Amino acid sequence: MSIFNGFPDLPGPEETAFCKINEVYCCGDARYGNISTFTNSTKNHPKINVTKDFHHHRLSDENISVYVDVEDNLLKKITSVWYKQGFLEALSVAADPNVNKDSKALAVTASYALKVANLFTALRYFIQPHLKDIGPKIVSKYSRTRNWGSAPVKCMAWHPHTTKIALATADDNVRVYCSEVSFVSTLKCKAQGHVSSLSWRPYSASEIAVGCEQGVIVWTVDPNSMFTKPSSSNAVVLKRSGHSPVTDVSWSPNGDLLISCCGADTSMLVWDVAMETAIPLRRVAGGGIVFARWSLTASKIFAATSSIIFRVWDTQSWTPERWCARGCRVVAACWGPKDVVLFAAKGEPIVYALNNTSLLNGARTSKAQPVLDVTKVELSTGDTVGGPILDMCWDPMGRYLALLFEESYIIAVFSTTQLMMQLNVTPCCFISGVDNEVPSTFAFQQNFKDGACLTIAWSSGRIQHFPIIYTDSY
């Protein structure tokens, strides 16, 4: 029997779910209902709606060559394409007889040079297949945000200690919303393009790391400043040759180290931001490092590669244990209390768990345990839920697990309890959008005191706070 049979029914056609309080699934009118009817726990939360005014059309990398000025001479055309798209594209322009009509000798030379370059490129991709995609294609391929390239919100991150949230929007600006102030700080600089991830520095009210195409940008935003657009002098750009685009950034729970990952780099960089230096953690097998997750105690790091291989690093000795997922690469992972890590492989409807005992025993004598089967089913309403997992998020107390699916637009939230090293997962509730909304990405608030609060970015640009509350008297 499917675990989804134990969930409460979805809201009616004109309704939406606002929260869950003491096992009561609170729903109301989708257009005129208000969460304050049920609870004031999110009364001071920032009210966010990413409108179309934030969106600016970005020329796709594939179409940049269309805008080369055809009236320019050949040298200018080649130089322009080289600057914008690279050496190989410049060779293609020089070898194209429709563009290069003035110098046949140059066209023949460029065509032979291009064939040789393509041969070496094909050989390199055969040896290192994770390098096939370049630039934003890598970010789009490995992003856990649905339709990352066109989503109004590319990623989000709650501050670990205050009611402050940062959103990276479609225009690659990072907007910071705080419950204590009414204005919104907008972080933007020239190097900040194709933003992939955000991470607030623990024990700091002002520092946030932004993973993007050129590297990592660490912003310092004074929480007492009235400037809504801090200058680029407040930003430090951390970059290293061969380590771009950055697909994930993550501060340690202690706030002393910053990890950056790149899907095209087999090294995971551990940054000392104050010194602007990085130490690479490299292992040959597995391809590029797609993302990394710190355990809550900062004693371990889960690192997923672009292949079926993933590693769990011990941060005391900085040595890894190598594991293999079944079938395909790990697409999502999250740590919980007692050093339990949950993960899911791409294309699979199964959540696996590794506990501290398994990690100590080593990969040769233990294996990950399946703890949740979310095979896709059709509900009585005709909606489908479940299937391959796109992303997962565990609240800081380890009580609730939220799943985002590739083929379903309904978010499933599960209750989780740990007893004697056994993880028990039970149904909690569904969260669905209004009208034709689909969830893009989500994150649990880190400092919510009344239970758990899941923040969801919908495809319409609407940001929803969904609290799950248990009162002391219940």
UniProtKB/TrEMBL annotation:
Which Gene3D superfamilies does the record associate with it? YVTN repeat-like/Quinoprotein amine dehydrogenase
The family database entries (InterPro entries) matched by this protein are listed as: Aladin, Beta-prop_Aladin, WD40/YVTN_repeat-like_dom_sf, WD40_repeat_dom_sf, WD40_rpt
List, for all copies, the residue spans of the domain called Aladin seven-bladed propeller. Answer: 136-469
Q: Name one GO cellular component term.
A: nuclear pore
GO terms (BP aspect)? nucleocytoplasmic transport
Quote any Pfam family the record assigns.
Beta-prop_Aladin
Q: Which domain of life is it from?
A: Eukaryota
Record protein name field:
Aladin seven-bladed propeller domain-containing protein
Question: What is the native source organism of this protein?
Answer: Euphydryas editha
